[in-house]
Fold Sporulation protein.
Amino acid sequence: MGAALLLMLCLVFPTAELSISSAMGKSVPSDASAIQADAFNKQVEQMYRHVQDGHMQAVQEDLRRISSLFEASSFEGLTGVEGIHILAECIIEMKEATARASAEPQHWMLAAGKLRLAADSLVHTHDALWLQYFKLIREDLQLMDQHAAKGDARSVKTAYENLKQRHELIRPAMVIQRKPEEVNMLDSWLSYAGGVTASSDLEQVRKIVPQGEELINMLFGKKKDEPALAPLSEAKDPWAWQLVLAAFIVAALTFVGYRKYRGQQYISKPIFPRKM
């Protein structure tokens, strides 16, 4: 059924697969693609504001418009096939989260944040909002190392969970802007680090943290000892810090098989609210 989703996306975006092989090997975006991405980003930004304000009706209308814009756009030259897939998944997740917004308001906010960062990454190549998480993620890694050195396994697990949650929040934006193999390397490291942390092997935790730091530097385009960015509370966008607050409730959602197929069926229908 995952293949069905790919087929549907290719029908909607007939030129994407031909002109884009990866997030970093893309062609020069056309004026039409840039205009489409800007309109999409502005609509998602509006949705995010509505989510913050709790305007369910407005969010539902925003999601309808977002779905329509997504279906009508190619984003050619702005991202690769993987980026198109992750955008579709973010929209699906947002619709599902909106359906459960009353019971799970934190997840609703989280889904809105992921879509917001993903849409922003389409139009901001060098100063995308997700890049502002560099300092926070580096601090999580440093805390893992520091707590491991002190023999504090519980605090190591807490630092790892914070790291994993922040990664979940920014991963869609990362997929849109970075090479698939680079994103996969970090995914693999996080999976391995999770097993090491769960086993309370603190010596091994200290050995793998430098590897994580190298991967983070690579994905954020930083040199090894380059100073981190300022905290989001000092960043240009006032809403960004709220994403950090929402990050602690990240729940890993897997969009494969049946859920992808089922969700894609919904994407063309006016469904739940959206806010920016």
